[in-house]
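URGENT: need a sanity check before tomorrow's submission.

F., can you look over the tRNA pseudouridine synthase A record below? I want to be sure the sequence and structure line up before it goes out.
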Amino acid sequence: MTCIRLTLEYDGTDFAGWQVQPNGRTVQEELERALSRLLKEEVRVHASGRTDAGVHAREQVVHFHTGKKLPLKAYVEGLRALLPRDLAVVGASEAGEGFHARFSARGKWYRYRILRTGVPHPLQARYCWQLAGPLEVADMRRAAERFVGEHDFAAFCAAGSDVRTTVRRIDACELREDGDLLLFDVRGSGFLRNMVRIMVGTLVEIGQGKRQPESIDRLLASGRREDAGKTAPPQGLCLMRVFY
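C-alpha cells as predicted:
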C-alpha cells in the first residue's frame, strides 16, 4: 500500500464543512467519491483538520492509502473532471512511512479577511466579513500580540468541543491593512474549534472600543467562553498552509 499526500484548494461557501455527515454536502465526501471513481476502489481520506461550514482552504493537506499504482499527475489531472468547480487537487506526492496529515503536522497558518466599508460589495461577500464603521487597528494590534505564546485558549473554544487540552501555542499573530481590507494572519501549533473566529470577533470588539487590549489577558486567565467576543462569520476564514 502506498500513502498518497494531496494538497487541496476549495471554496467552502457551499460546503457543510470538511467531515462527512448525514445531511449536507462536504469536502471529504466529494473527494472520496472522486478518488473512488478514479481508483475503482473505496477510499478513505484523512485531513490535517476539519474546516467548518463556509470556511475556505488554499492549502488543505490530506492523505490516503491505495494499492493502485498511478502516476502522481493523475491525481491532479485525472481528478479535475471528477471534482466540482469549488474543490481542486493542486498537488500530489508519495508520503513517507508513518506520515499522517493530522498527526504529522507541526503547525498551521490561517488568514481572516475583514472588509471595512459601509457599502456592500457582492464580489467580496463570499470571502470577507463586511463591517461598517471605523476600527481602531492600533488597539487591535496590541491585543493580538497578547495571543502569542503558549496559553490556555478555553475562552476561545466553541462550547461542547471534545479535546484533551485547550492549551495551544501561537507563534505569530499579525494585522495588516490593504486598503479597505484588514488581514489577520495567525500561525500556531494547532487550533481549537472556532478558535480563530472567536479571536477575530474579540479583536473586532476591541477595535470598536467595546473592550480594551488588556482584556485579552483576563480572557486567557478566565477560560470562560461567555467572557470572550462573538464568533466571527465563517466566510472570512481561510486555511492558508499546513506545516510539516
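My own read: The mean pLDDT is 96. The beta strands are 2-10, 46-47, 56-66, 87-94, 107-116, 129-131, 149-152, 167-178, 181-188, 237-243. If you see anything odd, call me.
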